[in-house]
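User: Can you model how 4'-deoxy-4'-aminopyridoxal-5'-phosphate sits in this protein?
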Amino acid sequence: MIFCYINGSFQEKSEAMISIEDRGFNFSDGVYEVMAYCNNTILNFSKHLKRLDNSLKKLQIPLPLANKKSLKLILKKLINLNRLNDGYIYLQITRGNAKRNHLFPNIIIPNIVIFTFSLEVDNTNILRGVEIGLTNDLRWSRCDIKSISLLPNVLEKQKAFENGFYEYWQIRDNLITEGSTSNAFIVNKNNKIRTHPSNNFILGGVTRDSVIEIAKKNKFSVIENGFTTTDLDSCEEAFLTSTTVGVLPVVKFENKTINDGKPGKITKVLIKKYNDYLKNQINAKN
Ligand code: PMP
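Assistant: Here's the modeled complex, given as structure tokens:
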């Protein structure tokens, strides 16, 4: 049996139900988090919690739990019930159930749904690097909120798959914002790591923030002022970051090959350092 958690109880996943008047279902009126779980440890837990808190506050949705400690207890119990060793946790909180109306009702109780899942991470992608397409950013101007409204991201990821790309990096006002499921980085000729600033045009990735911290600690220079397609043409290395893939090398943009089609030196250092950083979290727990 596989369990999920819904609004206070652990239920068998195939039998769990949510109202058809859930505002997440009707309006995408909700937020989510995806966390990685490895060897008894929820990785980057406090960073995920902080982002969840921020997303909820921006939408004026209260956390439907007694406190943040109780969330950890729920996650641990779900992990144990599902005998998860390595995998991922999906957590979604919506505004709650109400008669369909754009206006928020005065009294409403948020819905919380949590389930676990496994994912085969393709190691060949990490070793060989991936190819990226470029497209205009069609999303709204509050990409900082980890909203469950992911239609542009879904459509782009599908289009990328159909065109043989890992994903598209999106362009807004001449700057590369991010990928449809990840944050975007390049390394320029002077070994400077460049990425979009953490503002309302990107999701402030937990992996992004961790990798920036690690890079700075290791004396790499990180510039968070964005980069253009012209910068892409002259970059030495590129990579993307997300919870599900960690640090993933990029070796080609459309028809332009980077670093002879091989993952870059600095990218490889960051992959190792990021893995060490996750291992340290696991060791600290055990
Ligand atoms: N940007 C977008 C649009 C994403 O969907 C994700 C993954 N959820 C990320 C960035 C990476 O965020 P994180 O490192 O927290 O997984």
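A couple of observations from the model: Residues 34, 153, 178, 181-183, 203, 205-208, 241-243 surround 4'-deoxy-4'-aminopyridoxal-5'-phosphate (CB under 6 Å). Helices lie at 23-27, 45-58, 68-81, 123-128, 151-162, 206-217, 229-234, 265-285.
User: Helpful, thanks.
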